[in-house]
Amino acid sequence: MSESDGHEEPPAAQRCGLIAIVGRPNVGKSTLLNALVGQKISITSAKAQTTRHRITGIRTVDDTQFVFVDTPGFQTRHGAALNRTLNRTVQGVLADVDVVLFVVEAGRFGLDDAKVLSLIQGDGMKDKPVFLIANKLDAVQRRAELMPWLKGMQDRHAFAEFVPLSAKKAADMERLLQIIRPYLPEQGWFYEEDALTDRSERFLASEIIREKLFRLTGDELPYTSTVVIDKFEEEGHLRRIAASIVVERDAHKGMIIGSGGERLKRIGSEARQELEQLMDAKVFLELFVKVRSGWAADEDHLRSYGYE
C-alpha cells in the first residue's frame, strides 16, 4: 500500500535460530565459526582441545540472524574432569539448537568422527536437521573420489544437507548461510543487528592469550594449561589487562617463559597486538605464569577458572 492510504507495509518476517558446530577435535570448527561470523571470535590452533567453552558468534544478513554455537571437540578419553566438562558442554549445546553442522574432513571419517555422530543420533535429536559439512575441500586431490565416500556417509545418517566447502573461501560461507536460512524459525532476532558475539572483551582476552600460548609452544606444552584474567580495567580507549597462565608443572613454566623470558615476551606481544586490533583500543598487557598441580582434574579448580 502507498503512504497516502495511511497504512505502512508490514515488516518482512524475521528469522533467527541457533546453529551448533560440532565435530572431533581439530577438524576446523573454530575456523569455520570465524569465517561465518566474518571476524575472529574463536581461537584456532593445531592443538586439540583449543576451544574449551561454548562460544556464540552472530551474523545478521538481511532478515535473518544466524546465532552460531562453537563447541569443544568431543573428547573420547573421559578420564579427566576437564574432558567430562567439555563433553557436558557439547551435549548441553545440542539440546538447544535448531540446526546442527557436523563438521568432518572431506573424504575422511574415523573413530572419533563416529563417536561425535553417535552423540548427534542420541535421544532428543531425532527431529533436528543435521548438515554434513565436508570441510577442507581444497585438500582433496580428486573430487570424483568423494562420491563413494558420500554414499557411505549417507548410509550412516539421514543428513538434511551435504555441503562440501573450504572455510577459507568467502563464497562457500555465503552459500552455507543461504542453505541454513530456510531451516531457522520465523521469530525476532536475539541480538542487535551489529552484534558479533555474546562474549565479553575480558573473555576474548583470555582466549587470544591462550591461542598465542598454544601456537608459540607447539607440541611441547600439554593441553592442560589455561589463562585466567586477574585484572581487566577499561579507561576510555585504554585497556589494562593482567593475566596468569596456569600450568601443572614447573617444567611447563620454563617452556612458556623460554630462554631469557623471550617466549613469554613474544606471547604477550602477539596477544597485545591482536587485542588492540579486536578492541580498537590501546592495550597494556602483563603476563604471569603460575603452577597449579592437578587443576585439570579438579572440579572446583575448573569452576574457579570459568569452565561450565
TrEMBL record:
Q: Which residues are recorded as binding GTP?
A: 23-30, 70-74, 135-138
A single Gene Ontology MF term assigned here is:
GTP binding
Query: HAMAP family from the entry?
Result: GTPase_Era
Picking any one GO biological process from the record gives:
ribosomal small subunit assembly
Cite the residue spans of the region called G4: 135-138
Q: Map out region (G3) in residue numbers.
A: 70-73
In residue numbers, the region (G1) covers 23-30
Q: Which GO terms describe its cellular component?
A: cytosol; plasma membrane
* UniProt keyword list: Cell membrane, Cytoplasm, GTP-binding, Membrane, Nucleotide-binding, Ribosome biogenesis, RNA-binding, rRNA-binding
Q: Where is this region: G2?
A: 49-53
Quaternary organization: Monomer.
Per UniProt, subcellular location reads as:
Cytoplasm; Cell membrane
Start and end residues of each Era-type G domain? 15-186
Q: Name one Pfam family in it.
A: KH_2
Record-given protein name? GTPase Era
**PROSITE patterns cross-referenced by the UniProt entry:** G_ERA, KH_TYPE_2
Protein's organism: Piscinibacter aquaticus
User: What does it do?
Assistant: An essential GTPase that binds both GDP and GTP, with rapid nucleotide exchange. Plays a role in 16S rRNA processing and 30S ribosomal subunit biogenesis and possibly also in cell cycle regulation and energy metabolism.
